[in-house]
Amino acid sequence: MPPVATASRADRPTSYDLAAFPPVTGAEEEWRFTPVERLRALLGPDFHGGSVSVEVDDAGPHPSDPGSPVRVERVGRDDPRLGQTPAPSDRAGAAAWAGFAEATIITVAPGAIVGGPIRVRCRGNGASTPDAIHLAVVAGTNAQATVVLEHSGCANVAETVELQVAEGANVRVLAIHEWDEPSVHTSSHRARLAKDATLAHGVVTLGGGVVRHTADVVFAGPGGTAELLGLNLTDTGHHHEARLFVDHAAAQCTSRVTYKGALLGAGGHSVWVGDVLIRKAAVGTDTYEENRNLVLARGARADSVPNLEIETGEIRGAGHASATGRFDDEQVFYLRSRGIDLATARRLVVHAFFAELIGRLGVAEMTDHLTASVDRALDASMTPAEIPSAAHTDRSEEHARL
Amino acid sequence: MTVLDIRDLHVAVDTDEGTTAILRGVDLTIRSGETHAIMGPNGSGKSTLAYSLAGHPKYRVAGGSVTLDGRDVLAMTPDERAKAGLFLAMQYPVEVPGVTVSNFLRTAKTAIDGEAPPLRTWIRDMRAAMEALRMDSSFAERSVNEGFSGGEKKRHEILQMELLRPAVAILDETDSGLDVDALRIVAEGVNRAKAATGLGVMLITHYTRVLQYIRPDRVHVFVAGRIAEQGGAELADRLEAEGYDRFLAGA
Predict the structure, then answer these.
(1) CATH of the domain at B224
(2) Residue at B113 is within a domain
(3) Average pLDDT, whole number, for chain A?
(4) pLDDT tens-digit series, residues A233-279
(5) Residue in A327, A333, A356 to test binding to B, most B beta-carbons within 10 Å
(6) How far does the CA of residue A342 sit from the closest CA of chain B (Å)?
(7) What residues of A are in contact with residue B57 (Cβ under 8 Å)?
(8) Is residue A331's pLDDT more than 80?
(9) Chain B residues with CB inside 8 Å of A387's CB?
(10) Which residues span the domain enclosing B175?
């Protein structure tokens, strides 16, 4: 029997205990699109440290000084500041939690306004043994900061990113995945927003054989705002999956989700699942989520599943959209008949598709880098003789429980 | 002086039912400044001729040659053909969502010229060309052909032709679906390009109406994949009076 998304997201178990999640078979709703065997090693319980390094750029004059606006610390598993965000909601998240030996905590002092981005570099050294890394960003009341997480090299890594955004704080996080080809990566981002907190969250996936990203964002107090943006370029053999959950547990919160993906090569597979839950207490909610995919090659597949659950009628707005378009033979011919070569034509169309989104990621220091990386990924994805075809497969499902 | 020389061109398409021959030996020479009207009934292969010359991958050349000033057009990719000086104004221009007209035109101009046009003169030229075609300046920021009316699409094709300045333009039923005002505006654009650059024109049409605005030097009647009769502008008048029945009976 095919799995069906009927259970409410509110009923999904969450736990820090790996044993609470049975071994993954691939038939489960939250795993049905995933090539489970390719990331089996990241589902626990065995992790070996040392294959991924986590370095934080010197963010202030004295990052180790307790009085510094930004502090960076390496802490053990038992640090009480860890585990203050929603508990893992799948086995990958629980395994990452169970597997890390040392965590990095970035603390932004209450009221501190940090100008430039705090850059965290996660680099894989090529070892195939599974590693687990853990990062926590703790932003104090009314603090403002931007954190950029850069992932590169070759790795087999389960990652947790905890985001604690205190009352009135404004945190921007941009995670960039530029893994080398064979990398396998699970990432569990979990954010807790206090009253009037703002989170601007971006995930850019340009490389990596398997990247499965989940983001659970809970509004724990009223008046919060969350923007979740995503961009993926998915080439031949890549599986790029994003599963998002915005939990409107408090009143008068606003969320916007915009994920866009371009499928560049045959066999590329992208998955977007956007769960939004508006609980009974969340009156005055305003939410909108959308996923757009652009298919540039035959045999690529984009699965797109928005799920919107609404438990109160007293909201300001709730909507979702999902669409998959193609860059087909006729478009290619039209552009080429105007002198534009195939590589330029693809760049033109993909740039147009992503331009507004890259601007919205809002980290000026990274914009040029991202644009150049998109071009590199595009050029790498094609051979000179290759002409994309109109033939492709795409699937789109929508479930809305109103 | 540019010469487009088509010799004994045979073209087929592959379908699920097998290969179908559509062009069966086309001979035609177009020189700079000349306007050749290609007229004929539906299904005679006029559009196939247009798309084959532009290099659409659906059409397979089964024989013959096409040269532009002696260069082998059939060996070129579609973008190489455009750079060599060919332009096809399409009957059904294609939507390219997200790509603005302005970005598209500048990218095409850069590709054709081999260098980006100077920004200031380019914007001035683009505005002037749009104004001449009675296109509102807001057009520049719309997605290519997306949501365009039939008339807007055709004017956008002529806009590209005027800005890209090809040596030879193939206009594939550019007149179809246009009201008389739009037809006049589009025809003015073609005549401007002829005057400005000595454009050679292959004007494919089903109707003689457009020939009141763009006077052909030669008229070719296209039937069953080849030219069945040729003449001067007076041949068009005769077709207007008699229709294509005379040719179809013998085909």
Answers:
(1) 3.40.50.300
(2) no
(3) 91
(4) 999 999 999 999 999 999 999 999 999 999 999 999 999 999 999 99
(5) A333
(6) 8
(7) 329, 333, 387
(8) yes
(9) 57
(10) 3-98+143-248
At B248 the pLDDT is 76
Q: Domain for residue B37, yes or no?
A: yes
SS3 of residue A38 by DSSP: helix
DSSP state of A113: B
The number of folded domains in chain B is 1
pLDDT of residue A388: 37
Mean pLDDT, residues B83-87 taken together:
98
Contacts of B107 in chain A (CB under 8 A): 340, 344, 348
pLDDT on residue A384? 44
Whole-number Cα distances in Å, A294 to A269, A276, B145 = 12, 23, 18
B57:A349 CB<8 A:
no
Spell out which residues of chain B touch residue A330, defining contact as CB-CB under 8 Å: 94
| Residue B224 neighbours by CB under 8 Å, 6+ apart | B24, B44, B45, B251
Please report the pLDDT score of residue A66 as a whole number.
66
Interface of B to A at Cβ within 8 Å reads 54-58, 77-79, 81-83, 87-88, 90, 93-100, 103-104, 107-108, 111-112, 160, 164
Q: Is A6 on the interface with B (CB under 8 A)?
A: no
Look up residue B47 and give its two tokens. 């559009």
How much is the ipTM here? 0.96
* Distant-in-sequence, close-in-space partners of B36: CB < 8 Å, separation ≥ 6: B28, B30, B201, B202, B203, B216, B217, B218, B219, B220
Choose among B88, B100, B107: nearest Cβ to A337: B88
Q: Within an 8 Å CB–CB cutoff, is residue A87 touching chain B?
A: no
Task: Locate B75 and state its tokens.
Answer: 């060996």
Question: Does any domain span residue B224?
Answer: yes
